Amino acid sequence: MAKRAVRWAEAVDVEQTTRQWAAPAPPPATAPPSASPSCVLCGGKPTEGAALPCCARPLCGGCGTPRRCPRCKAPVPTSEAAIAAALERADCASAARRLGVAYARGELGLARDERRAATLYKAAAARGDAAAQHNLGLMYMSGGKAPKALKWFRAAAAQDHAPSLYNLATAYAFGTGVPRDAAEASSLYLRASLLGSADAAYALGRIAPDTVAAREYFVVAARRGHRLAAAALLER
């Protein structure tokens, strides 16, 4: 994201989520089916960060990057300039979102352009790309436009996008753009945790009704690499 579009939810101090406002969090359960996209080559679960350079459609680690795009049959570009040009030509939401990220971060040889990034995110979000909806929500939240941000977080959350569920839960926890709602925050944190969010699992540990339940959530978060959860376990 661009400099101003930092990850809003990370700036929220989850340590403040105390039992004063938190509804009792249910124990860990089995995650519901996710509507996440599949590998464009084999249809399997994609690896985070793995995608076709030319259109940003997801790939799995087992397939790797092919020499030719399975959609357009053209050789897969390798240079930054060629990748940026291919993304500009591609007519799909994932390409618009990846190009938006490139403009936001100044990648692929492109100058940082937050307005261009927002335009691309909007185009991808309108076509249902959950990650683009999430990124657009982050930009609005960083700009102090909570109602617009929550609109896009909800859209992505409806597709089981864990980071958006976590951000939406945090908004309800602290009353950011919506009235505080402890029960809704707990429910959304749980959904995000079941979908793999370490931040959400840690938040559930902080608001758990007893030490046994709290430890269960901290263990889940720590196994996902959450440092504060690991530190909390050492204190117990």
What does the model show?
The protein has helices at residues 8-11, 80-89, 93-105, 114-126, 130-142, 146-157, 162-174, 182-194, 198-207, 211-223, 227-235. The chain has 236 residues and is mostly helical. The chain has a domain at 43-127. Residues 1-35 have low confidence and may be disordered.
Please supply descriptive tags for the structure shown above.
0% strand; 52% helix; 236 residues; disordered N terminus; mainly alpha
Topology record:
Layout: H1 8-11, H2 80-89, H3 93-105, H4 114-126, H5 130-142, H6 146-157, H7 162-174, H8 182-194, H9 198-207, H10 211-223, H11 227-235
In short:
The chain has 236 residues and is mainly α. Helices cover 52% and strands 0% of the residues. The relative contact order is 0.14.
Mean pLDDT: 84
Low-pLDDT sequence parts: 1-35
Q: If helices are DSSP runs of H or I spanning 4 or more residues, what is the number of helices?
A: 11
Question: How far apart lie the N and C ends?
Answer: 37 Å
The secondary-structure class comes to: mainly alpha
Biggest pleated sheet? none
Instruction: Return Rg in Å.
Output: 19 Å
Global morphology: globular
DSSP strand tally: 0
Beta strand %: under 5%
Q: Note the run of SSEs as H and E.
A: HHHHHHHHHHH
- Can you give the helix content as a percent range? 40-55%
